[in-house]
Amino acid sequence: MRIAVDARELCGRPTGVGRYLGELLAAWAADAGAMRHEWTLYAHTQPQLPSSWQSAVHVVAGSGGSAWEQWAFPRALGLQRPDVVFAPAYSAPLTAPAPVVLTVHDVSFYAHPEWFSFREGARRRLLTGWSARRARTVITDTVFSQGEIARHLGLPESRVEVIPLGMRRPVVPPPEASASPREPIVLYVGSVFERRRVDQLIAAFDAVAEQVPAAQLEVVGENRTRHPHRDLEALRRQSRHRDRIHLRAYVDEATLADLYARASAFAFLSEYEGFGLTPLEALAAGVPPVLLDTPVARETAGAAARYVDANAGHQAIADALVAVLTDQDVRRGILDHAPAVLSQYDWQATAARTLAALEGAAVGR
Questions:
Q1: Which of 58, 145, 339, 342 could bond to 140 as cystine, CB 3.0-4.6 Å?
Q2: Same structural domain for residues 189 and 333?
Q3: Which of 27, 309, 346, 1 lies closest to 169 in space, CA to CA?
Q4: Number of domains the chain contains
């Protein structure tokens, strides 16, 4: 079977969807059953991939935007005539010469159009809607997103397959190891969008710092806020504890692993997600997460998190973080539930189910 993959998200600094696709490729590379297929990875420039995948890359010159997706990419596909096309990032070429398996991680641009410019929101809604209705199979990460896709795109839930994401480290350290002394670091990791309320986290940190004298806030993620733009550096400068707040757009894997190993609390106050991977990565590293109380957070993290009411103010956020930073009973109560929660997420299982979807979509080709 010839499988074509849109690999644009692996170009540059892969985050989000790029990490999702990278983990799938790593799992497939280790699976003899997957590697019996013929794979071609299409991108507009050379993607970041291990050597085992380099020979499968086909670079199609262009910007890598919607025009590339809808014109250059399908022309290249027409030459190869694949049996199935995997589009891991919300949209696919509408004239693809083969069945499409499409992953839609969330539909925030439908549910909250105010978070996007008129042009960007309209583009995303148009392309995702058309792509999903045309796709042979639609994949999403959670039951919550399955319902959102059905509601906003008008697809029956039976056409949307839920395949949860996986974890690199499926088991947390034992509770006695996790309870060993850590630094009083509050960590946030992820692209910064309006919905993730990083500005509120920075504002709440003053109250944390006043109760935990050595506390620090580490924010790692590119600022992608647009409507309105949140000037995080300006917010940091306005803080009474500005010297204890550190903002970084990107760190390498070794630095990120070090932050997870040192942090005592993980904050992720997102009001809308398709899944939310970084809180689970923190949990796997023995860092209790503080999450906004939303349906998708409850679905993915279950009892292995401290929850903050979605309408809570800065003091409630600070109180939750202080409890996780300083109260060993609170920490242990969260981490004791971690093994059961994390056992649900495995990249090998995610990759196997995704491959099955690809093989099923190609039947009869």
A1: 145
A2: yes
A3: 346
A4: 2
- In this prediction, residue 228 has a pLDDT band, given cuts at 50, 70 and 90, of confident
CATH number at residue 274: 3.40.50.2000
Both tokens of residue 357? 């979807």
Range of the domain at 44: 2-166+346-361
Q: Is 115 in the same domain as 162?
A: yes
339: number of Cβ within 10 Å: 16
Contact, 175 vs 204, CB < 8 A? no
Cα distances (angstroms) measured from residue 140 to each of 40, 191, 295, 353: 23, 20, 15, 12
> In angstroms, rounded to a whole number, what is the distance separating the alpha carbons of residues 268 and 22?
23
Cis, peptide link before residue 50, omega less than 30° from 0: no
Residues 214, 85, single domain; the answer is no
DSSP state, 87? Answer: E
Question: How far is the C-alpha of 42 from the C-alpha of 82, rounded, in Å?
Answer: 12
120 lies in the same domain as 106: yes
Exposure string (b/e) for 109-138, b if CB count within 10 Å is 16 or more? bbeebebbeeeebebbbebbbebbebbbbb
Encode pLDDT of 103-115 as tens digits: 999 999 999 999 9
Compute the Cα dihedral for 10, 197, 326, 337 and give only its sign.
Answer: negative
